[in-house]
Amino acid sequence: MKGRRKRQGYLKVIEGRSRSPKDGIKRGKKHVYYLLTFLAFFLLFQILAGWVRAITQQNVIGTVLAEQGNVPVTISVSGLITFEDEVILAPRSGFVYYNVKEGERVPVDKGLARITEFPLEEEKETGQQEKGVTGYLYSFKDWLLEEKTEDYSHLFSINREYIVSAPSSGLVSFKIDGLEKYGPNTYFLYLNEDEFAENVPEGEYKESGERVARHEPLLRIINNYRWYYSVVLPPGDGKLIADETNVRLCFSFAPEIQVKGERVERQERDGGSVEITWCIDHHLNNLYARRWAEAEILYDVLEGMAIPKSALLEVNEKKGVYVIEKGLITFKEVVILHESEEELLVENLDLYHRVVTDPTGVVEGQRFYW
After folding, report:
1. Each residue's pLDDT tens digit, 113-164
2. How far, in Å, CA of 143 to CA of 155, rounded?
3. pTM, entire model
4. In whole angstroms, what is the distance from residue 123 CA to residue 145 CA?
């Protein structure tokens, strides 16, 4: 019997790979890596989101740095201005014709005006030449015998004139108000505003061509290098500045300029009011035309931190502001020294403290991202 042939098998055994513990560790490391990567991206996103919030919040919350500021403390006064001036009188009667203008500065011996016996008018064409000698004689007889209602200056061939010269240098003023006799060369006059309005006339002005009498005032020459300001202060204000030798003044007609006033006289009235006169050596425009003037006397300066008025708020009946300290909104109580239309001058703030300009919607403890 022949031996059986073995049939070729169709199944094949595939050798498998065994799993070792190291493979599990590798897969665990991959999971940790993925987790760490996710966390890193998450943290980066948070940082970017925080940065965006910081930019947005910084735009929403307006802040300003507290800066050093000062405010002058003033007292409002009104008083009389006097000068070292000299009134020029007419040396003779006649008709005056000025050679200078109001406010003009003149040197010594400058010809200020001339005084003529008769008006300097052009001869009127009244047919005088046609009248001849007979008409001239009749006109002269009328001038001698009748009331002189007509200008007969043309009948005289000589019209004598007298030149009025400046005895000193200074500014020219044509205004004569009767206060020229007061000042450093005599004595100072103290009036309140009502007394000035009731007792002091507005002043008179002479114009070229006017008739003047002998010793009548023509004009005055003002020494504007030094002038004087006399005021009456009430008891309270008077005590504040009565002992000050020098003060700073700002006049209403020149508000942009501060001038120094040196006290030359001080005396008390019954009732405690104080009369003070200061000498001022600073020229101001159109000063020669002034008699009564309002001014602010600077007697002290307040120093503090300047912040916007909008930053002020009240918490628990305390006035203060929100400041940013170490990234947190913090309430800071302040003491108001001075208040203007837009700014406050306060105490209890440090220089360059970052102050929230609009506390609306801001709460204490809120974090502020830079």
Report:
1. 999 988 886 433 444 444 445 555 555 555 556 555 555 555 555 778 899 9
2. 9
3. 0.63
4. 22
